[in-house]
Design a protein that fits this description.
Length: about 240
C-alpha cells in the first residue's frame, strides 16, 4: 500500500511537470529509511513543492524576458506597418498633407508614400512611389537636409504629387497630393508619424499667436505641378 501511494503521487507529479528535466527531478523523490506512509508522502510533497517553486520562478523569468523582447519588437513592428488615407476633394487639386517628424532628436527621418498597384481605387488610375529622407532645422538648429526620389506611372489620374517642402519649422514634411477620392499608403522610420490634412481651408501652424503673427506658417492647396516635383520624377535621389 505504501508503494502504491508513492507510485500514484509520482505519476501525478509527472503529469504536472511535463518537461523532461522536471520529470527526471521528480523521479529522484524518495523516502529514505523506514518511515510510515504519512511521513513519506509529506516528505515527497515538500520536495515537490520545492521543485514547483523553482519551475515557477523559471517561468516568471521567462515571462519577463518575453515581455522585454516584445517591448523591443513593438516599435519595429509599428515602423514596418503600412498606414493609409483617402484624399477626397477635387480631382484637379493637390492638397497639402502634413507628415510631422516626431523623432527629430533621433536624426534623419525616412518617409515613403506609395500607390504600388496602378489599379488602386480604379482601373489604371496610376501608381506612385515617393521616398523622402530629411532632417529639419526646426527653428534654426542647422544641419538640415532633404533628399527625395519620386517614381510614378501617371495612368488615368496622375501625376499624384504637386509639390513637396520641408519648412524651416515645425519639424516635418508637407507633400501636396492629388485629391478626388485617391488612396495613399505611407510608412515612416518614425513610429509616431501620421498624415494630417484639411480639404476645406489652409493648413496652418502657429496662426493663433496674437503676439507673434509672423510665426504663422500656412500651406494652401494648389492646382499646378511645381518644377521641383516635375524635375524629380524618375531621376533617382536628388538633394533639395
Amino acid at each position: 500500500m505504501r508503494y502504491l501511494f508513492i507510485m500514484f503521487f509520482t505519476v501525478f507529479t509527472l503529469s504536472i511537470l511535463s518537461t523532461r528535466e522536471a520529470a527526471a527531478e521528480v523521479q529522484q523523490l524518495s523516502c529514505q529509511g523506514n518511515i510510515n506512509i504519512k511521513e513519506c508522502l509529506s516528505k515527497i510533497i515538500n520536495q515537490f513543492n520545492g521543485l514547483l517553486l523553482e519551475k515557477n520562478n523559471e517561468i516568471a523569468t521567462l515571462k519577463q524576458e518575453i515581455s522585454a523582447l516584445k517591448t523591443k519588437i513593438d516599435p519595429l513592428d509599428a515602423v514596418a506597418k503600412l498606414k493609409s488615407f483617402k484624399l477626397d476633394g477635387d480631382k484637379n487639386t493637390f492638397y497639402p498633407v502634413w507628415f510631422a517628424d516626431n523623432c527629430w532628436f533621433d536624426g534623419e527621418t525616412r518617409l515613403n508614400i506609395s500607390r504600388s498597384s496602378i489599379h488602386t481605387d480604379e482601373r489604371s488610375a496610376g501608381s506612385l512611389n515617393a521616398r523622402f529622407v530629411s532632417h529639419s532645422s526646426a527653428w534654426g538648429h542647422g544641419s538640415q537636409f532633404l533628399e527625395a526620389s519620386l517614381e510614378q506611372s501617371n495612368g488615368d489620374r496622375g501625376p499624384f504629387i504637386g509639390n513637396f517642402e520641408m519648412p524651416f519649422y515645425p519639424a516635418g514634411m508637407v507633400v501636396w497630393l492629388r485629391g478626388g477620392g485617391l488612396t495613399y499608403y505611407y510608412k515612416s522610420s518614425c513610429v509616431n508619424t501620421n498624415a494630417f490634412f484639411d480639404l476645406n481651408k489652409k493648413f496652418c501652424f502657429y496662426d493663433n499667436d496674437p503676439l507673434h503673427p509672423e510665426y504663422a506658417v500656412c500651406f494652401d492647396k494648389i492646382t499646378t505641378v511645381s518644377a521641383s516635383a516635375t524635375n524629380s520624377i524618375g531621376q533617382g535621389w536628388k538633394r533639395y
